[in-house]
Sequence to fold (150 residues):
Amino acid sequence: MIVAIGCDHAGVALKNAVLPELEKLSLSCEDVGTKDEESVDYPDFGAKAAEMVSSGKAERGILICGTGIGMSIVANKFRGVRAALCHDVNSARMSRLHNDANMLILPGRALDNKTAFEIVRVWFETAFEGGRHQRRLDKIKAIEDKYLCR
Ligand code: RB5
Fold:
């Protein structure tokens, strides 16, 4: 599975910590940056990763900024992206079971590495439940078709 991963300066430390964990899960990561702690603007990097997921170049994505809020706002502008901001393992699990989230957003300034690794592992190991939840995702797609520009 190809995973697009990106961050801003507030997420780079957690991204660097998470990358080896993703390799252990046999995931192939495409790191769109940023690569150091020099201040950058999160929309620039969020858009790169979200575009990869939206276009199908990557099946899943991970984005990290300080709170995770900015990256969530950016990612969810993209057609077909269902980005979930997760602070704990339960929300990571539920975002897969019920929402079929295809982007995981992490708050770099609010998570310790151990919790982040557990969130990532559970997020990749949990399958979408389908059923009544698929009907709801179909309604989200209908909203995209009606209101998004393209
Ligand atoms: C950067 O200081 C910070 O604003 C950013 O990482 C993020 O938290 C925005 O939502």
Q: What stands out?
A: The first strand starts at residue 2 and ends at 7. Strands lie at 2-7, 28-31, 60-65, 83-85, 103-107. The chain has one domain: 2-147. The helical segments are 12-24, 42-55, 69-75, 89-97, 113-125, 132-147.
